[in-house]
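Quick one, T. Sequence first:
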Amino acid sequence: MFSTYRTLFQAKGTKAFALAGLLARLPLPMTGIGIITMLSQITGSYGLAGAVAATFVLTYALMSPQSSRLVDRHGQRRVLPAVAGVSVLGILLLLVCSYWRLAQWTLFVGAALAGFMPSMSAMVRARWNTIYRGKAQLQTAYSLETVLDEVTFIAGPPISVGLSVVILPQAGPLAAAILLAIGVSALVVQVGTEPPVESAPAAGQGSRSIFRLADVRLLTLLMVAMGVIVGTVDIVSVAFAEHMGMPAAASVVLSCYAFGSCVAGLVFGALKLDTPLHKLLLLGGLATAVTTLPLLQAGNIVGLAGAVLVAGLFFAPTMIVAMSLVERIVPENRLTEGMTWLLAGLNIGVSGGAAASGQVVDAWGAKAGFNVALAAGAAVLLVALWCYQRMSAGALQAS
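Structure tokens:
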């Protein structure tokens, strides 16, 4: 299996941009939790901290597709330094305002500017696509990127929280800003693997968002529903562990979810399947829905860890298939924007799932929060079925 992934890096420049992309994507999971940790320490208000962090996430979800759209039109090296610079300035403004205890509205301004952070996962995937478009290695590359996304969401939050708690409340977000600047700089200087920019796009393509395509909207909706499951598992696992009197066990439970997803993603990427992608998406949606059911049956930490491990097995493969479908649906010169819409949808879902499940936990207890994941799993299945029907009809018409 590992030899399959080693072959990816035989192409010139792949190791360098993969490493730069890994550094540059760490700031996304570090910033949101870093804002919460920083402001809760300084102000003592989780409500304010959550609202400011939500401003960052919402701005990111809205603006990252627009940044990617500009990248598709003008190139990574022209656009990324500017938008990343705005994000870094926003984080620094947030740190200054929190340190000097300025008016609360200034925190929201800083968070909104920080949300201009570009989707670095999409930028790296676009480079892989430039090298392996139309080849079997592309699915393996997408699998690798999905696993690396999981790794950053595992490693980023504890790094940010640890820095803010041990050194200074502002240390976590500051580290995120530094990593973003270093990672983006290291990526944009690698012009040899940068996706080419068409000098004269077709009429109307440059002014209309790729989100106008129905299939892109459906896949984004699918990612929102999957993100709700992730956000719910995050929040409810912490609440469940606290309810059982073992709060530290929450990290073990969440690691099981990430471990299941990473292993499944690596295995899936090494497979050479002939099954059409829209069928794989339907199977992934069905499996995702079914594997949310054991969450409601967990009665202790060991049972929850096992249920969460199973639930994570189909996250990465389903996301890989969705990304592969986008690569086939959108024009080649709009791929970065297309992938970014899916990643933005995932982040919206994670935030929404965390908020919704948190309300359910407060009202009806920790275990009841998993009903949000169950509902989201049903939504994943319905949207996957919708996608399957649309894409099957399109395949028949094409034949």
